[in-house]
Write a structure and sequence with these properties.
alpha/beta; 5-stranded parallel sheet; 14 helices; globular
Length: 405
């Protein structure tokens, strides 16, 4: 009755009154998606957006945005990736897939635990990917409830890189950061960087080899947030270096929310990195981490002061950083050294030594003969010789020399 009375009193028909409407500027949109045109048959609309000057100027600048019939969402390629007119024959994504399939990686080797290579040295076959697929198929057979998840995450993909892109996109997606767009970005970055592809595989081997709780490569890929965060960082680092700093920072923020790990996009990492547990890890902008480094939960690689230049630690190859250890300033942590849990390091650390305390002091030495693996590989946090042992050995040698004389 109310709608009818309103229709009679306002001079509008019943169908016009009952159809709910909302206003956007001067154009009226019906909720069923049909556009009520004010200017007759008009195929294109221009939206006038007034942007106030940030410098406090009184006048407004008018930007004209023309809506075309083919929206960028229809193509599946965001505008910031389409620097040129899209051409499928010269698309870098398609070319990267072709290069991955056709070019054997006979010169790529990496030793970690019981696996001495990432790719078959004779054929270039991705050995790690074959193992992951076998494990995923076995897991699907043993646990049918997870079969759909394993199929979508691993078995439906033709390469490790595509599976990794899918897993990361699903983890980092949000209502305003769609997984479909993230997959497109991640695949492009990964497939265009040989270094990222090798490092991502080396990190899987590191997790499986060094963490006794990791029972399979599939577990590291699908369920280890430390591994996933490192790979997401590698992507944000590539975006940062390519000039897409806003997108890189957006990914960093999302990674911090999802993984509780904060790594600046500009931080540099080698391959074979283990981020065990990972919760609470903070790595600053100018930090550098070498190959085969193991980092436990709560580690901070931070700066001191407000200097915006090189201000964060440089961690050498084979270093083990214990849980909740803090390293501050532009200092070097020498190759093969170890920082005990809860230590505060403020000064440079020599290679192959053990540091402990707050502030940390040298409490032992690490075998540097090359006959044993570095602390990052063995994960032994008491694998060092104390000064008492060194002193006892030196005294014994002196006494032995006196007896021979």
């Amino acid at each position: 009755m109310r709608a009818t009375a309103l229709g009679r009193g306002s001079g509008l028909g019943r169908s016009e009154v009952c159809a709910p409407r909302r206003r956007v500027g001067r154009t009226v949109f019906h909720t069923d998606g049909k556009l009520e045109k004010k200017d007759g048959t008009q195929e294109r609309k221009k939206l006038q957006l007034s942007v106030l000057s940030l410098k406090g100027q009184q006048q407004a600048k008018v930007l004209s945005v023309e809506r075309t019939g083919q929206d960028w969402l229809e193509t599946g390629f965001p505008t910031y990736l389409r620097t040129k007119k899209f051409n499928a024959d010269h698309d870098p994504f398609c070319q990267a897939i072709k290069d991955t399939e056709d070019a054997p990686w006979k010169d790529v080797t990496y030793s970690e635990g019981d696996v001495d290579f990432l790719f078959d040295p004779n054929t270039g076959k991705d050995v790690l990917w074959s193992k992951i697929r076998e494990e995923a198929q076995k897991d699907a057979d043993e646990e049918p409830l997870l079969s759909s998840f394993l199929y979508c995450s691993i078995l439906s993909h033709r390469s490790f890189d595509m599976a990794l892109s899918f897993v990361l996109a699903q983890k980092l997606a949000s209502p305003v950061l769609l997984a479909t767009h993230l997959i497109d970005i991640f695949e492009r970055v990964i497939l265009e960087s040989r270094d990222i592809r090798v490092a991502a595989r080396a990190d899987v081997l590191a997790a499986k080899s060094r963490d006794p709780a990791c029972i399979s490569y599939t577990q590291a890929l699908l369920y280890y947030k430390g591994y996933q965060c490192i790979q997401a960082h590698r992507i944000s680092h590539a975006l940062w270096n390519s000039g897409q700093k806003v997108l890189a920072l957006a990914l960093q923020s999302r990674m911090s929310e999802v993984f509780a790990i904060d790594i600046h996009p500009a931080a540099r990492m080698g391959k074979g990195i283990l981020l065990d547990h990972g919760t609470g890890v903070v790595i600053g902008e100018t930090a550098v981490i070498g190959d085969r480094v193991s980092i436990l939960q709560g580690v901070t690689l931070g700066g001191t002061g407000k200097d915006d230049k090189d201000r964060h630690p440089k961690v050498g190859e084979g270093v083990l950083l214990g849980a909740n250890s803090t390293i501050l300033g532009n200092i070097k942590i020498g190759k093969g050294s170890m920082v005990a849990a809860g230590s505060l390091v403020l000064k440079p650390v020599r290679p192959y030594v053990m540091m402990a305390g707050s502030p940390a002091i040298q409490v032992g030495k690490i075998d540097d003969s090359g006959l044993t693996a570095p602390p990052a590989i063995t994960m032994k946090q008491k694998d060092g010789r104390s000064f008492c042992e060194e002193w006892e050995k030196a005294v014994s040698q002196q006494l032995e020399g006196l007896r021979l004389d």
